[in-house]
Amino acid sequence: MPDYTQIVLLCRPGFEKECAGEIMDYASELAFPAYIQARPDTGYVLLIGTGEPNIAGLISQLDFKQLIFTRQWFASLAKINDLPEQNRIAPLIDAIKSLEQKFNDIELAYPDTNEGKSLSRFCKQFKPHLLAALKKQKLLSPHSGQRLHLLFLDSQQVFVGVAPIENSAQIAMGIPRLRMPSSAPSRSTLKLEEAIHWFIDNESRYFKSGMTAVDLGAAPGGWSWQLVQRGLLVTAIDNGPMETKLMQSGMVEHYKTDAFTYRPKKTIDWLVCDMAERPSLVSKLIAKWFIREDCRNAIFNLKLPMKKRLQEVNECLGLIHRQLDEANIPHQIQAKQLYHDREEITACIITT
Ligand SMILES: C[S@@+](CC[C@H](N)C(=O)[O-])C[C@H]1O[C@@H](n2cnc3c(N)ncnc32)[C@H](O)[C@@H]1O
């Protein structure tokens, strides 16, 4: 195995500090000597290893799903800075060979910035040529558990690296291609759809026809719509109006009341919450629902403050975790800044 020098992490542009802070915390906790190289609004972060154990080991020791602000990651050798305009394949194949691996899959990526997105066409057109060259060099194998990663910063600068397929994002750059359903009441609907895909492995077990849900801050109904599509009976709480067509489904009951005081009569299967409220207040509210046995599972988002965003996230999730532990409620809590999240993250708690 070669000595990888760094881990490359992709994130939402503007959240490099949070992505860096989070991976650095894990590197320190797991005793990987490293430092960060990151610039604001670039959409990626480098964690550079400085000794033993080799930094690539962090990718096998840390569950990718634990990372909130990282969309994709891979271990890499140094960056290529001067890829020629003509015959890019030869130097790339040399770099790829130095990884000393075979690959099951390849991902050609670019940062999620305006500049980065201009490389989308180039990556699409270049991929078949690279695949053909890899095949010729016998560098592809269906038995390999590794994916080859190329992150282009422009047509000359590229990071080349590798990630285990099972412990990285399964979708390119961690960005799901979801289509806005024409009958959904709001674009917010995509947040809940992405959250369900990301957090729930066995959707048909957790979302069954006839289950019950409460949607706090529901109007106009994009999240309720997702639940109704899955056959759930929804109680929508919001002082604002719900979309008429969704209400005509007969699956949604709407109460114009305050989400902080509403309580269901019986335990419900799913609590969902998409309110623009202080994250600490939302966290306390969610914990209260579990402690009072008002819900079994929850998906909610936490709007992030302007400053100390990682600290706020850790405090909010820590509070919920602690309170549920104190109440002896076995639970799993996961969080992610989803592609459809802006200044927010989404969290999911499962107890069943
Ligand atoms: C971002 S919108 C929700 C969008 C919704 N999830 C969708 O997909 O259409 C936030 C909603 O939270 C509601 N809200 C904020 N604070 C609330 C509270 N204390 N009680 C009830 N609703 C509240 C607002 O009225 C607003 O409609």
Give a structural overview.
There is one protein chain. Helices cover 30% and strands 23% of the residues. The chain has 352 residues and is α/β, with parallel strands linked by helices. The chain folds into 2 domains: 6-174, 2-Layer Sandwich (VC0802-like); 189-350, 3-Layer(aba) Sandwich (Rossmann fold). The strands form 2 sheets. The protein has a 7-stranded mixed beta sheet with strand order 2-3-1-4-7-6-5. A 7-stranded mixed beta sheet has the order 10-9-8-11-12-14-13, sandwiched between helices. The structure holds S-adenosylmethionine. The site of S-adenosylmethionine (SAM) has 22 residues, from α8. Residues 185-186, 188-189, 217-223, 237-240, 258-260, 274-277 line the site of S-adenosylmethionine.
